[in-house]
Amino acid sequence: MRATVAYRAADGPGAGGDFYDALTLPHDRAAFILGDISGHGEGSLARTAFMRFTLRAYLEAGLEPREVLRAAGPVVGQHLDGHFATAVIAIHDPAESSLVYACAGHPPPIVVGPERPEPVLVASSPPIGLDMQTGLRQTTLSLRPGAVVCLYTDGMAEARTAARILGRPRLGDIVEGLSPTATAADLLGRVADEARVLSDDMAAVLIRPRDSIATGGPRREQIEVDLDDASSGLVERFLEACKVGPAERARIASEAGRVAHANGTALIDVRLEPGRPVVSVTPTNVLDLASLALSERPVLP
User: Fold this and answer.
1) Comparison of pLDDT for 62 and 10, the residue scoring more
2) Could you tell me the fold of the domain covering 2-216?
């Protein structure tokens, strides 16, 4: 796959809170981190560095995107000095022709090409630093040949044109209209050309997977819930957004409540198979962070 990254500071202090990172993982996989910490100036540099290295360390320890955000949220939140942060973490697996991603208060990736899937936004996980548990949602997409993935910070979608803010749909159109050799810097340039006012920093990661013979699996949407979630109607709203029928929604919510009551939390996995979604409810895996031996790779301040 081919990936490019770019950052453009808004007018004013050049030290913003947007950041990105990319790394290779075992089995030819690639991982990407894109985040945005509130605040600007020199004070934001230490916070962004700490958050970037912490998220990277958990990825290198073998956690999935959702697990990275869930585990790192409390750690990073203690070092934000009253600020909050959003992040999206994505892993591309060429063998499966898949993209697995999770967001914490951050816009989900834009995917264009043969397909342009719309994200399921119901029950999205909150930002880091708000004293709320995050890392509860994860999405798996199958990438067909010709797909282009764009991770971006909200400064891009919120750039103001003469009539309104640019918005995610228009940003998707711009990504779709890029040439096959265009880079993330070209994308930022296109947004800047169209915008009248750039009031926030902008950062983007543009990913172009190589053509793959893998057919890929179905789209998957996952959510971790506790007993309160299962009885609040949240599960039913999430399942409705995943096109699960009314009768099934009530049964699954009841099952999730039973599993959460017995195990603390439950993981609902929706596989969007052709014809009708297939849903499973299982106990959530408990992360044994001590066994990950993260101390072997110190998290840099």
Assistant:
1) 62
2) Phosphatase 2c; domain 1 (3.60.40)
